[in-house]
Amino acid sequence: LAKKIYNHGVIVDHFPCRAWVSLPHDYSYNNKLPLLKYVAKQVLSSLKSEGHQEINPDASNRIDEAHGILKKSRYLLVLDNISTRYEWSTLKAAFPLSTSSGSRILLTTRNPEVASQVDSDSPPHQLRRLTKEESWQLFSQVVHIPPKGKMLAKEILSKCE
């Protein structure tokens, strides 16, 4: 859903700066600086891939550079896979929103505590889990399953949440 919003034509036209940052599932940030450096580098790389050629994602002061670029224009920043309140509070402080600029941060998380902390005026959108039938239909559309592999595929799918 977040990817569809990010790539929608109206959104692309409305936000001159768009950046998508995915935090790794298997890494726990217990220090602000590595988290900020990682996110700043991802923001700069994302902006560069969106056509901002003057950006250097490997700059030594990339936290300041990312903040400075975003501060100057209307941006959409997607922070994907925020897993702790600590990560969110650190990133929220690093990328403050100016309501007058129209900038927005879209956050994805599996943690209800993080989701409830984001914006008290806007309740989180919680995706509905697929039924077993819907899961099988989606899986079948994405993966070619030979007739002999149908039982194995259903067994694999049953282990997914």
From TrEMBL:
<dbReference type="Pfam" id="PF00931">
    <property type="entry name" value="NB-ARC"/>
</dbReference>
<dbReference type="GO" id="GO:0006952">
    <property type="term" value="P:defense response"/>
</dbReference>
<protein>
    <submittedName>
        <fullName>NBS-containing resistance-like protein</fullName>
    </submittedName>
</protein>
<dbReference type="InterPro" id="IPR027417">
    <property type="entry name" value="P-loop_NTPase"/>
</dbReference>
<dbReference type="GO" id="GO:0043531">
    <property type="term" value="F:ADP binding"/>
</dbReference>
<keyword id="KW-0611">Plant defense</keyword>
<dbReference type="InterPro" id="IPR002182">
    <property type="entry name" value="NB-ARC"/>
</dbReference>
<feature type="domain" description="NB-ARC">
    <location>
        <begin position="1"/>
        <end position="143"/>
    </location>
</feature>
